[in-house]
Design brief:
183 residues, alpha+beta, five-stranded mixed sheet, two-stranded antiparallel ribbon, 6 helices, globular
Length: 183
């Protein structure tokens, strides 16, 4: 198992888990004071923007991802560069992985940073428990009640949910290799 220390420890509940996606995007943007720039040691400046938050939501939403938005600046600044894919002559996709503690539970996050001539733009791609389990556990379930209005589900390696998010094989491989997550 990867031994990097968590980049952030958060209690959770910083953002609404009920309501419309636009309300979530607005709340995250306001709390994180977007737009702003985050410096990553290998990638340079990553633009933390409202559009990045919208892209994160559009690429699949789980309760864990909602909670991890609070740690987004730390994920982008301190995430470990674990893979780079060349999309075309002008765009590269860099994957940053980081551990985050949410209510004491160790989670794994992967952010995708698109590197292009116009700058580095991100979206939070995946959030799962570090042990790869499907269950949230009773303590975390109490802290993060099921929301009726948002489409949220546990985004876990080995499920078909990644199939609609681009190169799901690459993401599964990254998580398994870095964090020893099993299907």
């Amino acid at each position: 198992m990867w031994t990097q220390a968590p980049v952030a420890s958060i209690a959770g509940h910083a953002f609404p888990t009920e309501g419309r996606h636009g309300e979530l995007v607005a709340a995250v943007s306001q709390k994180l004071a977007t737009p702003r720039e985050i410096k990553h040691p290998n990638l340079g400046i990553v633009h933390l923007t409202r559009q990045g938050i919208k892209s994160s939501v559009a690429h699949g939403l789980s309760r864990l991802k909602v909670e991890c938005f609070e740690a987004l600046p730390e994920i982008l600044a301190n995430g470990v560069l674990v893979a780079v894919e060349t999309k075309d002559a002008h765009v590269q996709a860099a994957f940053l992985a980081a551990k985050v503690l949410i209510g004491g539970a160790e989670c794994v996050t992967v952010a995708l940073v698109k590197r292009s001539e116009s700058g580095n733009w991100y979206y939070l791609h995946e959030v799962t428990f570090a042990d790869g389990t499907r269950s949230m556990g009773p303590a975390l379930k109490k802290q993060m009640p099921r929301e009726p209005s948002m489409t949220c589900s546990g985004s876990l390696v080995g499920t078909n949910q990644l199939a609609n998010q681009g190169k799901h094989g690459a993401m599964r491989s990254i998580l398994q290799r870095i964090f020893s997550v099993k299907n």
